[in-house]
Each structure stands twice: as structure tokens, then as C-alpha cells.
Amino acid sequence: MKENIILFDLDGTLIDSTDAIVSTFYHSFNELDFEFDGSDEDIKDLIGYPLEIMYQELGVEQDRAFDFVASYKNRYKDISKQQTLLLEETKEALELAKSFARLSVVTTKTGKYTIPLLEHMDILDYFEHITGYEDVEHHKPHPEPILKTLDLMKIEKTSNIWMVGDTKLDLMAANHAGVNSVGVLCGYGKEEDLKEHTTFIAQDSLEAIKIIKNFKI
């Protein structure tokens, strides 16, 4: 029985969906006649938050945010497979992780769209569970997504649980849930922000898995 548990974020950790996300934000702005005066970087800086929060931070009024979310999801489901890539070393990282740990995904992406995407990218079978936006009431940095996933995996709290993610939201959720974490620099978070919330920083998911594999309690 594998004693190690590794939970992965997706965007910026295992996959690069930047083009899909950014282009779909612009699509929704155009479709709903919203004059966005920000930049691509403003959008990228918010990746990891729920969509409705991203839209509000980008200037959309709260009572209109879910109209934009609906527009976003309607397009994203059609273009995500074409405009999403595996980050370098992802397959190797998952192969290594699977050799000594049980794996699941904890993401703020909508699960019903994420599962076909991961299947298309031929990595779905590495994971026992995909916990997405619709599966929890509170999202990262709240611990609920991690705790819900561990419950689905029938895991009692041990010292061998790890969260791997690219933003402070992932690491804060891990801290709130009382599990270990590794921050990766291949995504959207800034190194100085990640260092505030974890001892372990890696260049990418493969290096993160090597840190976990070699970690001694």
C-alpha cells in the first residue's frame, strides 16, 4: 500500500492553458460589451482564483460576474483541448509520482470540463479523483478542496500528504489543511510569494516530485 499522497494543482503546475484562458477572457469581454482596459498580465496574475473573482478583480461588477463566467465556460469547453499543452516534464513527473504515491487533482477549474481535457492529454488515469470548482463550497486558499479530496481517497491525516502548486493559493490551502506543500515556479505565482507559504520550492513538477520522494520525516 502506497503511503504517500500527492495532490496536484493543474494550471501552471501540470498544464499550460494560458492561451486558452486569456483568449477566452477577451472573448467574454467582447461578447458582453465590456471595455477591458487591463493587460494579458493582469489576467495571468489572477489565474488560480475562481472565475467570478477574477472577473470582479478585472473590473466587472459583482452582479454581472456570473454572466461573464457563463460566457467564458461556453467557449472554453470548445477550445481548451486545442489551446492547452502539457508543461515540460509533466509525464515524467507523474510516472515518478505514481511509482511511490497515490495521486489526485485539486483545481479551481470546472471538473466536468477538466476531466475530458485530462483524458485528451492522456494523463487522466494517473489520478484517483479530480476535485473541481463545483465539488466544494469554498475554494483555495480554503482547505475544503484538499480535505474533500482526502476524504474521497479515504485518507486519514498523515505526515505524508503533499500539495504541489504554482500559486500562493495552493500553498495556503495546504497550510490550512495541515499538509505539506511544494511550490513550483513553472506557473503563475511569484517566487517571493511562494516562499512566504512553503519551505520547498521547485522549478517544475518533476523537481517537486523528487523533493517529495527524497524527503525524510
Number of domain units: 2
Low-confidence stretches: none
Report the β-strand fraction as a percent range: 5-15%
Structural class: alpha/beta
User: Strand arrangement, largest sheet?
Assistant: 5-4-1-6-7-8
Folded structure, characterized:
The chain has 217 residues and is α/β, with parallel strands linked by helices. The protein folds into two domains: 144 residues, 3-Layer(aba) Sandwich (Rossmann fold); 62 residues, Putative phosphatase, domain 2 (DNA polymerase, domain 1), CATH 1.10.150. Strands 5-4-1-6-7-8 form a six-stranded parallel β-sheet, with helices on both faces. The radius of gyration is 17 Å and the shape is globular.
Summarize the structure.
The protein has 217 residues and is of the alpha/beta class. The chain has helices spanning 18-31, 40-44, 51-57, 65-79, 90-100, 111-120, 144-152, 168-177, 191-195, 205-214, and strands spanning 4-8, 15-16, 85-86, 101-106, 130-131, 161-165, 180-184, 200-202. The longest helix has 15 residues, at 65-79.
